[in-house]
Amino acid sequence: MTTNRREFLKIAGVSTLSLIAPAIVCPAWAKDKIIPVSNSPEALSPSKALTAKRWAMAIDASKCPADCVDCIAACHATHNVPGFGNPKDEVKWIWQEKFAAAFPNESHAYLRESLQKQQLPVLCNHCANPPCVRVCPTKATFQRHDGIVMMDYHRCIGCRLCMAACPYGARSMNYRDPRPFIARINPDYPTRTKGVVEKCNFCQERLAKGLGPACVVACKEKALVFGDMENPQSEIRLLLEKRFNLLRRASLGTKPQIYYIL
Amino acid sequence: MLEKSLKGSRGYWIWIIFLLIVAAIGFFFYLRQLDYGLGVTGMSRDVSWGLYIAQFTFLVGIAASAVMLVLPYYLHDYKAFGKITVLGEFLAVAAVIMCVLFVFVDLGQPSRVMNVLLHPSPTSILFWDMIVLSGYLLINIFTGWVILTCNRKEVPPPGWVKPLIYLSIPWAISIHTVTAFIYAGLPGRSFWLTAIMAPRFLASAFASGPALLIIFCLILKRYGRFDAGEKAIQALSKIVAYALATSIFFVLVELFTAFYSQIPEQAQHFLYLFTGLEGHTKLVPWMWTSAVLAFAALGMLIIPPIRRNDGWLAVACVFVFVSLWIEKGLGLVVTGFIPSPLETITEYVPTGAEIAITLGVWAIGFMILTILYRIFITVHDEKENP
Amino acid sequence: MKKNKWGLIILGLVIFIIVITFPFWYGKGKTSPAPTLSLDTPAIAQLKEKRCVEDTSFMRESHMKFLGTWRDGAVREGKRLHTARDGRVFEVSLSGTCLKCHSNKEQFCDRCHNYLGAKPSCFSCHNIPGEVKK
Questions:
Q1: Domain assignment present for C49
Q2: Which CA distances in Å does A66 have to A61, A245, B113, B229, C126?
Q3: What is the three-class DSSP state of A225?
Q4: How much is the pTM?
Q5: Which of A101, A164, A172 sits opposite B189 (nearest CB)?
Q6: Complex ipTM, two decimals?
Q7: In chain A, how many domains are there?
Q8: 8 A C-beta contact, residue B66 and residue B89
Q9: pLDDT band at A33 (very low <50, low <70, confident <90, very high)
Q10: Distance between B360 CA and the closest CA of chain A, angstroms
């Protein structure tokens, strides 16, 4: 298939025109009537996808064995999270914090010692009222109908206003090219590029294929429970009904959706 | 009129070449930052804004302070400022351009900057800041240039420029208010989460901006064959004194709330600034310098004999500028992140590359300012000695 | 004095015109051979009908815009399936769908992009199958 210079100039011209044309105008093919799905790729058939009105997670950290980092390892390997080995450039989606750091307002010196020593997994809270979404100047971070707070890495300009707005420290900036620092690239998930902010996405790419979040699946102790908060019969709702639980910094009104069973 | 900037003494050209060199060094380091990423700076996961955004915040104040000349002259017909309102407007132009550049060099993906316009997000304060800053830039370029042209031709300014000047007064207040709202509306950053942030910003702006203008007027008087007039400079110095007193008062008010309430979240950031936290004391000497300079300058400015002496006045104004630069251009932004929401204390120190880029942007700003002031002086000279 | 100024202005204009037209006269007479794009990959060889997601001419002219729509649909609206005009359904995935057939990125994507000086940043994040470490 050879193409001469003239044709290339034509393509260049057309693409330039397409850039000028407002992005809102859909190309002709997009307006066509939808033809029923015939040979739909198996894994992605919409019937298989996990859906919810509001995704949430419950964490029973008392089940976490000491030194277990299975959830963190699974998440970071699945999502190509780099390991820079220094706190300055660090990128993390899920990690551990002491109770006093995760719950500064609930912590005091005479709390049960096991709780004070307890390492809690922390991650993006997928707030129902997310300040990061409110402050983003390009809508690069946005909230889906199922409650997941997502990042559009294609649109992020790297202003880091979302990092200042997040009261949970859940966001990381790619201060440099992350690729050389990924031990083993998972070919099924993209990496990020320098200059964009990233965070946990509640494994939306796995939910679309009918799989639970990588951290939940990786946990042998079933300490992480993932489910629909708007469904009163869901496992997570029944669990929270039975056990005392707290939200991180609930007084800020962000309505976080990670429930800590204590 | 631009060609007037091409004539100048040897000192003028040495100054311009010096600024060009500083800007070129900054540009060189910016290319390195583009290649490597923002990792060339001292910013980290915990302290995600540093020198760049702090300079931006400080310079929005300098830009807004032009209103301190425009308001007395146009609303109260205070004639003494008639000669120098254009100087204030040109200072605003240079400051806003520096603001825009500082935001730009702070972006992780600068090539995508147009996304702010392609996907406008009215809930974002940064979006509104972009609108008010670009509007303010246009207003000041227009009014400054038109009035200077009219001065040159010795005709009264056209009627349409008056409403634009009146508009610039609330607009100046808006740029610094909106900039304060970037900080004051963030949950979980207790250092910034205060309703007094915008008033504090305005008070410190109305002290640091006019202080800088006095310094420029004194330099022009000595080396530029331009005398702004004793009355104008003295009036400006009183503005600086009152604004500085208000600014100090606002900070003390913040300290009272933080320390009398004894809410740790409120107090810990101020403790970090003035005593250090758990042995982390990098900003402490700076902040005490700022505090001492502020009180010293206030003392000098409120005693009339000292204020009336050009030399002492210059020293007081330098004190005000340095003190408020430390407060806003160094302490305010970084301390919001220390300690982090997870109670971690990560300190911030700018890197050499970051400082070079910062100086480069300042050099570009000073170059624009020098050229605009050069034009102003030449026009003025031609009128005085035809 | 006046005359002298005109000379300088004309000299300036001449230099300006020379600089601005530099690419035209510099490139005159030189020809760069048009790139030959290879469709010789195992996945394409197995196809009964050699047809991309949409017509070749559409893909050639508008793949960048088409991929942009794919990208926004998948990331922002969760649309992970694309139904082509002829009814076939594809997973919306650059690495998983496009590069599955065009597994020879260097002989296909890159040749043309290099020829045109286009520098798409897709692959600074999206993986090239087979090129991933380990």
A1: yes
A2: 10, 21, 45, 75, 36
A3: strand
A4: 0.89
A5: A164
A6: 0.91
A7: 1
A8: yes
A9: very low
A10: 20
